[in-house]
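**Backbone geometry record:**
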Amino acid sequence: MKHDLENIRTALANYEVDMTPRPDGSIVLTVAHAERRLVRVLDESCCPQEFIRLIHFDMALDENAESINEAVKHCNATQLPTYSREPLFRTRTSRLWAMRKLEKK
């Protein structure tokens, strides 16, 4: 499995990034900036763009209100986590439309 590590390193240029390969083909990324330090595993199930977005979100998030406002800029409203791990829909009708079964006769 190959990851676009240079693209990830470029996108996270504001942070210190350490990449350590694992025997299963995944990569352990350690991202550090000031006192913050995150350790994440990048494997084949991760979309690199989503992975980068989550790193930016976690690094921007802190205890105060200003950091929450900054972190929200990195949110993707269509892929917020839900209890059932299903996507969010604006209305019940849009959910029913997305879940419809199309059959060819």
User: Anything to note?
Assistant: The radius of gyration is 18 Å. The chain has a mean pLDDT of 76. Strands lie at 16-21, 27-33, 36-42.
